[in-house]
Amino acid sequence: MWKQVRxxxxxxxxxVVAVNAYRDQNxxxxxxVVVLLHPVNADxxxxxxxxxxxxxxxxxxxAQQYLSAAAAEYRGQPVHFYFQLGxxxxxxxxxxxxxxxxxxxxxxxxxxxxxxxxxxxSADGSPSVRLYLNYYDPQYVHVLKHSTALEKGRIGSVNxxxxxxxxxxxxxxxxxxxxxxxxxxxxxxxxNGQPTYPIGYAEPEKQPLYPQRYAEIMxxxxxxxxxxxxxxxxxxxxxxxLATAMEIGWKK
Length: 252
Ligand SMILES: [Zn+2]
Fold this sequence. Notes:
Blueprint: H1 2-25, E1 33-41, H2 46-54, H3 61-75, E2 81-85, H4 102-118, E3 129-136, E4 148-150, E5 155-161, H5 167-181, E6 215-216, E7 221-223, E8 229-231, E9 238-239, H6 242-247
Parallel strand pairs: 1-2, 1-3, 3-5, 6-9
Antiparallel strand pairs: 4-5, 7-8
The structure holds zinc ion.
């Protein structure tokens, strides 16, 4: 009798894990996509706090439009993206390990999922994705650490500058990380930042190939020659290519 109960419990646990894995992997694009954004004052500076206080959804409208338009192009019908500004969170997401072993990455991913669970409230509803926006004052921090997002769990830790001047660049990073959360992969060479040909090119069939006009959103840089590229300054300088559209399920 007890043995059967134990087996039943085990099967139930497996079922829950399987259902969660299935739900995580398949975004239903016919439904509205709710992206909940939680600002975090990552450096504790007063300027950063002032920046967080003036944040509004209006500033993100072009990012929503960018995504809806790209979705319409590949799917033949738009996807409705709704960004929501959630409450500020006092605790930083767990630090992404650098040069880490597989075990470190797994542990970090568990910690991050625990963090997201701990800081969620039932009033949040059930957003499609949660992004934690870690703001740093550019006066003190000149180079941001790498942002990252987990497809399993649909959460991302995004490092941004607390500066109106950087808002275009912030939006490019935010959209890039959001697409990671839906399963898109990076499309540049990790050793030098150069976009990978052809999957990291917005127009891989362009003649002549260089200079490219746009950066692929998951590559982030506009290729100028085989070995040189320049960073996209805003979303208008980027495109979402077919490879990315296929990874996130916009195109079969
Ligand atoms: Zn990336």
